[in-house]
Amino acid sequence: MSAPLGIGIRSGSYGSLDKQVQNGTSRKASKMLKEKEKERLFLWICKFAGRKKVGMLFLCLISAAVFVWVLYVGKGEDSQDGNTVTNINVNESVSKSDSTFENSMTNAMGLTKRLVLLPPPTGYFLGYHLPPGHPCNSFTLPPPPADKKRTGPRPCPVCYLPVEEAIGLMPALPSPSPVLGNLTYVYEENLSRDGEFGGSDFGGYPTLKQRNDSFDIRESMTVHCGFVRGIKPGRNTGFDIDGADLFEMEQCDGVVVASAIFGNFDVINEPNNISDYSRKTVCFLMFVDEQTEKYLISSGKLGISKKIGLWRTIVARNLPYPDARRTGKIPKLLLHRLVPNARYSIWLDGKLELVVDPYQILERFLWRKNATFAISKHYRRFDVFIEAEANKAAGKYDNASIDFQIEFYKKEGLTPYTEAKLPLISDVPEGCVIVREHVPISNLFACLWFNEVDRFTSRDQISFSTVRDKILSRVDFHFNMFLDCERRNFVVQKYHRDLLLRLAPPASPPPPSPPPPLPVLETSPEKGANSPIRRGPGRRGKDRRAGSRRHRKVVAGGREMEPS
Questions:
Q1: Which H, E and C letters describe 432-496, residue by residue?
Q2: Which chain positions lie within coiled-coil regions (predicted)?
Q3: How far apart are CA 434 and CA 460, in angstroms?
Q4: Are 489 and 158 within 8 A, CB to CB?
Q5: Which residues face 376 on adjacent strands?
Q6: CA 535, CA 260: separation in Å to the nearest integer?
Q7: Which helix (H) or strand (E) holds 376?
């Protein structure tokens, strides 16, 4: 006989009903026990609270608890207020357009803050875009003016941001250096010349294998980069610099504008249109040799402050090359070694005058383009072979050395420039201006470019494209080559000193000519010894005609006969 059907055997998804009933009964019982314990505790407190000492103790404990609670709540509110003020800064994770809008709204509210782009997850600056509708997004170059009298190169308009906006867009983080993360430099106490392939005591004598290995981009590299005979550049390395100047250069940890004059070849040009912020934060360094220093002191332009306007003069001694042009390549290409803590640099040849604020230049040609190296194309030539022939025709360097360098590059695969190299617009730079960020990959490019100049001719336009193309074939080097007319917008080219001296007017006017002589007095024999005859000056210039000379004849008796 089957067991009678009951609700206890009914099951469900959350367990059997009988267990649920049992669990409910047990929970009620435990709840009743807890309530009884609370009642006993309350009765116990009331029993002892009536006593004087115990009551006072309870009151003190309750007062202390209330005080701690009030203090904790008040502190929390203060911290929230403090966080509200701090959070006014732009969250670096917002987009560029949102940041610009928030920045303008904050400035309108009377608050001042710096627009800083957020470090991406990789910890690098990855560029930005100007907000939609910005005038620079639709900026195009106008056609050149129809001036038939001026056919040479000329400046063209450039869309710069205002100085304050450019300063606000300075990246807080460095740009990425593809593949290469750690770059160190060769130091040789005793120079090795085994298997050398060009070079010098200053730059070392790397072999052809070492040269080829230096183009194999790796995560960590050690390359020749000048100053091989000393641990610290400028100290017993050739191109030696005083300790005080080395210390000053180490303090430059932001933007550097540098130039050089060797052999007293140029005149120092004072930068113009420089903002107060740049005057305070940018290092303006002018490298000179002892010959130029002597002239600056004797002419009264250089005093004990070592400054001429914005420029701080840095005297280089024990120069490694007799050629001033080759010596000038040291601060031009190895500036990252001389100013090791700088983030950005702008190089200007000594003949140039800077007329735009450095932060505007960096924003336009580096940050907005997301580039780490920027240089202008040559205004006329874009092919290395044509550039080499132009150098030979102008006598810029020994022709045989230029031919040897070109032949070597041809064997490595150098070909004439064609449109197949686009978007690279030229193989020949106008190397008088270099704008760059000091990150490992751009520093490597500068080192290898200098090594070619040290190994072959000092004409850096010839070796530029070879170094650039070898690096670009291996890594995504953020490189920007801009138009020559854009370069001429922010620098003005002046004449070299020797040409200025030839063009200069005479220092003082020539001395006045002496007065004409007094008339000569003669004695007439007819009028006696005491009767003078006045003789006027003869005819001159246009008054004297060919074939009209008057020949005076004297006859007997002392009378003069006029010619018929």
A1: EEEEEECCHHHHHHHHHHHHHHHHCCCCHHHHHHHHHHHHHCCCCCCEEEECHHHHHHHEEECCC
A2: none
A3: 12
A4: yes
A5: 430, 482
A6: 68
A7: strand 373-377
pLDDT, tens digit (0-9, with 9 covering 90-100), for 411-462? 999 999 999 999 999 999 999 999 999 999 999 999 999 999 999 999 999 9
Asked whether the bond before 423 is cis by omega within 30 degrees of 0, the reply is: yes
Question: Which helix (H) or strand (E) covers residue 167, if one does?
Answer: helix 163-168
C-alpha dihedral, 248 to 250 to 254 to 256, nearest 10°: 60
Residue 273: left (phi > 0), alpha (psi -120 to 50), or beta?
Answer: left
Altogether, the residues listed in the chain come to a count of 564
This prediction has a pTM of 0.69
Give the E-state strand segments of 176-334 in sequence order: 182-185, 220-223, 240-241, 255-261, 282-288, 307-308, 311-317
Query: Could you report the per-residue pLDDT of 230-268, keeping only the tens digit for each?
Result: 889 999 999 999 999 999 999 999 999 999 999 998 899
What is the rounded distance in angstroms from the CA atom of residue 21 to the CA atom of residue 79? 51
**d(Cα 511, Cα 519) in Å, to the nearest integer?**
24
Closest CA to 470 of 217, 225, 197: 217
CB 156: neighbour CB atoms within 10 A? 16
Residue 309 in contact with residue 270, Cβ under 8 Å?
yes
C-alpha to C-alpha distance for 367 and 169, rounded to whole angstroms: 8
* Both tokens assigned to 544: 């004297």
Are the beta carbons of 460 and 354 closer than 8 angstroms?
A: no
Q: How far apart are CA 64 and CA 74, in angstroms?
A: 16
Coil, strand or helix at 319: coil
CA dist., res. 362 & res. 328, Å (int): 23
